[in-house]
Specification:
Layout lengths: L10 H16 L6 E2 H9 L12 H13 L3 E4 L6 E4 L9 H13 L4 H7 L9 H12 L7 E4 L9 E4 L20 H21 L1
Antiparallel strand pairs: 1-3, 2-3, 4-5
Helix pairs in contact: 1-2, 1-3, 1-4, 5-7
């Protein structure tokens, strides 16, 4: 097993890996994915943050890098080669853990409520406590944290989480800049998602 976070992905590689993980569950009939399908998945306008415009060359390079790290393999046999992830060969994750990691790879920094809401198509969580337990396990991963907890304060209204698998991220000790006033809508959306998840949890109980 490779040691994380020594294995650092580029932002494009992280997006490609996240897309393969997502599409394996949401569109199994179309999985593995061709290069063109991967480009489309990376650049789709829904369920992605940030929205990107990666080229086929950029996605191809990301596939090459992921292949070198044994995270992606090419599947031959059709008119065009297809690609599938091999994350299970690197990390032993449950379906629930894989769902949380997928959303973090595709959507960036999020609250537990947002993660619960955005993993609905990938895994049916019963409560926020399940997600918090998984996040804690990622933070305490023995070979180095996979996820960072960002406490509330310093302009942040709620606690958030982000993955540490891609390069160019903020280090755990580096404070984030306070969000500008233009981020008010995003803050409110995060808070609403958190409240909706809590209400759904109470209704289930």
């Amino acid at each position: 097993m490779k040691h994380f976070p020594e294995l650092q992905l580029t932002p494009v590689s992280a997006r490609v890996l996240g897309c393969l993980l997502e599409k394996q569950v949401t569109t199994p009939d179309l999985y593995p994915l061709t290069l063109n399908s991967l480009v489309t998945a990376c650049n789709q306008s829904s369920s992605r943050n940030p929205i990107t415009n990666y080229t086929a060359d950029e996605v191809s390079e990301a596939i090459r890098l992921l292949s070198e790290d044994y995270l992606v393999t090419k599947v031959l046999g059709g008119r065009a080669p297809k690609y599938e992830h091999e994350l299970s060969d690197v990390l032993d994750l449950s379906d629930a853990e894989r769902a949380v990691l997928t959303v973090l790879l595709l959507r960036g920094t999020q609250t537990t409520g947002e993660i619960k809401q955005r993993t609905e198509r990938l895994y049916a969580f019963d409560s926020l406590d399940q997600i918090e337990e998984i996040l804690t396990g990622f933070i305490e991963y023995p070979h180095g944290p996979l996820v960072e907890r960002i406490p509330s304060g310093a302009g942040r209204r709620v606690e958030t989480f982000r993955h540490l698998l891609a390069e160019n991220g903020t280090s755990p000790t580096e404070p984030e800049a306070e969000p500008a006033s233009d981020d008010w809508r995003q803050e409110m959306e995060q808070k609403i998602a958190e409240l909706e998840a809590r209400i759904a949890e109470l209704e289930n109980r």
